[in-house]
Amino acid sequence: MSIVPIMWSIWSLFVVFTAAVYIYRSNLARDEEDQIFLDDSFSHEQAAQAAILAKVNKVQPLLKVGFSLVAVASAFVVVYYIIDIIHQFK
User: Is residue 42 part of a domain?
Assistant: First the structure.
């Protein structure tokens, strides 16, 4: 059995995982305000923004891991094909 289908399957799983986490984080951050001025009467808005920020901060490490896994898997794919090209020219 060749390693190529396994290699591409693992790479695609990493990409799908990273894309799913990225989309989830984007949906969470959709309602986040860039800049808001609140006085004491808008404490519910401040609590809602803090909750959104807490959820986004929980997802952020997963996104970094996903990007790292995709980068490592992509490097592996590139190196595999470079080695394959070198072996074909021998």
Answer: no
Within a domain: 41: no
Other Cβ atoms within 10 Å of 37 Cβ, number: 5
Average pLDDT, the chain: 88
* Percentage of the chain exceeding pLDDT 70: 87
Q: Which residue has the higher pLDDT, 45 or 52?
A: 52
Total domains, the chain: 1
12-26: string of b/e by CB count within 10 Å (b at 16+)? Answer: eebeebbeebeeebe
pTM: 0.80
* Domain enclosing residue 83, as ranges: 4-34+49-88
Cα angle 88-2-10, degrees, rounded to a multiple of 5: 110
Residue type, 21: V
